[in-house]
Fold each of these.
Amino acid sequence: MSRVFSGIQPTGNLHLGNYLGAIRNWVTMQDAYEAIFCVVDLHAITVPQDPAVLRRGIREMTAALLASGLDPARCILFQQSQVRVHAELAWVLSCSARMGWLGRMTQFKEKSGKDREGASVGLFTYPVLQAADILAYKATHVPVGDDQKQHLELARDIAQKFNTDYGVDLFPLPEPVIQGPATRIMSLRDGSAKMSKSDPSDAARINMTDDADAIAQKIKRARTDDDALPSEPAGLAGRPEAANLVAIMAALENVSVADVLTRHGGQGFGQFKPALADVMVAVLAPITARFTELCKDTAYLDTVLAGGAVRARAIAEPVLAQVHRAIGFTS
Ligand code: TYM
């Protein structure tokens, strides 16, 4: 049986990179698969969080996911800390994972920066918790953006090691699903950095809460070169900012990069940017409107998460029981 699992941190706003790289695929996959999506608050505390801001962030991320098209009638949507199996399985899996594997994770190196000794242990073991998220549901497919590729390879290694260590065939090896023209959306200010919630410059990203004026301004100010757009994808080589804007257009319109260039090749950015902003506003405005409405109804958001947690536990707890038997905790 095919089962999808994915997660998102409830820190900061949902941005265009999250939406085009991952969430849109989640929305499509909820019909073709049994789909489980998680607001990963346990992951969020690997770096300091203000409790009141985190509490609000969990509800806002839930609202943003619902506004983007997740439907609790067609998928399970829940909050990670409400299902204790995640933390417990993470401990078990941390005994199968190897220090050397975790030491090679580029995201830990980036996030811990120069102060490696001062980073939390949780930031180091973060990918083990991510593996537990996936394996607690025996998920077979994991839709993510390109930046999660290494973490998913690790999840496969951990699943394999556990199976081998205990001579069982308990965990399927999860397949990353990294698809579409927008698996890695870059910052609007720097074509070599990924668009991210943690970028100190708000102008670097499009938030799903930005209104039409903010979107138009950010696209207008987006860094580009001075050349016109090429008429074929090969002409984007060595032009990361141009390639990024074209990829965003392709993803928003659900067409290929080649299609975008057939229509816009030869145009300068003075012409292309307003066209891009228009398409972006048309896609995002309905989502923003739904998001604003949903945020007012915290009782509904809490009900969705509580219902999702009950359904998630019903799948994850029997898996943990199998793990306990495999290890010898129970017979
Ligand atoms: P997070 O919260 O950083 O991002 C959520 C999803 O958005 C994707 N993404 C992007 N895609 C394209 N371009 C970008 N600029 C961009 N920025 C973010 C991410 O790849 C991700 O799919 N560790 C994960 C959360 C997680 C998880 C899991 C994912 C926890 N457990 C289990 C899958 C399975 C994270 O921090 O995602």
Amino acid sequence: MTEDTNSCYYQVQDNEVEIFNFAKAHNLPVLIKGPTGCGKTRFVEYMAHNLGRELVTVSCHDDLTAADLLGRHLVSSDGTFWQDGPLTRAVRHGGICYLDEIIEARKDTTVVLHSLSDHRRELHLERTGEVIKAHKDFMLVVSYNPGYQNMMKGLKPSTRQRFVAMSFDYPSPENEANILVHEAGIKLELANTLVKLGADIRRLSDIDLKAAVSTRLLIYAAKMMSSGCHAQIACLHCIIEPLTDEPETIKALSKLVNAHF
Ligand code: ADP
């Protein structure tokens, strides 16, 4: 099934729209797990668009502090004043706050989410002493990639057990081909070939790849081809080089590309 709106195209994979809507109906926060570039962010954008809610996205990283989410005191010529961070703004005024790659954030940062993501739905601003009850249209969505390089980091059970969780994976071949056609404007036949190449690369377990090829990378290759770039060149620079630094692996993947194009 495809759901297409004018400004946010999303190829539905399974029952994720229903699950999200059920969670939303009860103000439950949502956790989305899945490899990078498989459609997590696009899904959240699509849901925000459908629900008519503002979306605030924060890409988490290991320097992200609680203040980056909550806000901080700033100094002006009139003295100091408090400025809400992106999470606080969404909690106050409503909207979906999406914390992308939450696993990258420091553990003390994720703890501020606890009172917000359980029945209390309130945010504690220690710096100002304020406790904010979440707006009725506030929703918290977080995502992470549970790939092997993240196994050690994990999310604390006390954090993850506050969320309705769902796993995403790369789209089915048919869906992925439709996505390539839509996003890059290529012919279905070419999209199918790229999807088959992607599936073959994802099946390779005996070579050292940090991550499997994402739908995002297949779209890059498709876009370059759509504007006349030779298939082998597009695949080398949009698929192989982003995946690995190893000369041997580059050679092996190039052979695979040549078998398809
Ligand atoms: P993630 O957040 O999982 O890293 P994204 O949502 O940014 O990945 O997906 C990368 C790109 O792949 C998107 O910009 C979009 O073009 C495309 N994409 C992936 N899955 C879908 C889908 N189901 N429907 C439409 N586009 C998709």
